[in-house]
Write the structure tokens for this entry.
Amino acid sequence: MLKVNGLNLPVDISILKQNYMNELLVPREGEYESYYTGYVNWVIGKDIPSLLLEQVDEIRKFYEQMGEEKSLLAYEPGKWTGKEVLGHIIDTDRIMTFRALCFARGEKAALPGFDQDQYVATADFNSVLLSDLLEDFEQSRKALVTLTKNLPESSYTNIGNANGFKVSVRALIYIIAGHSQHHLNILRQRYV
């Protein structure tokens, strides 16, 4: 029950808390580099913790339909294979999650960038079973969601420096979700 102007209203407090958390997580302009605007915009207005887990199911379903053999193919020469795209999503999730953790804990040191092409080239994702990559993705996402839920509210607006740019904890969480959505869209368009 919620008491408003002396009236007891039947309201599910968990829904109010969820809406509050969603609003609290929305990054503001200036909390991330303009390069990430597209990623953030793709997921504005969504329940981010739920979306992060829904993406696990979406990506798992896509790759299970693709299969092990087709996941070794790229849609054109010089592009990543399906497995390499998934590996890149996992790497990026981990790096962005690490940045979010560091900044949530008050880290003041600048964190380095990373060369995504070099990471993919040296990771040898094509030699990893697709089922293992999918399990890795799922477990890393679960860890991200529990981190997000357990951070002190005040830490979401903490700003740190990553790759020479200022970025907030909540912007990093949005970037992770938007980055995955970006690659899922490409997978659906070009890898089927």
User: Anything to note?
Assistant: The radius of gyration is 18 Å. Confidence is low (pLDDT under 50) at residues 11-17. The CA atoms of residues 99 and 150 lie 16 Å apart. The helical segments are 13-25, 37-43, 48-70, 82-104, 116-123, 130-150, 169-190.
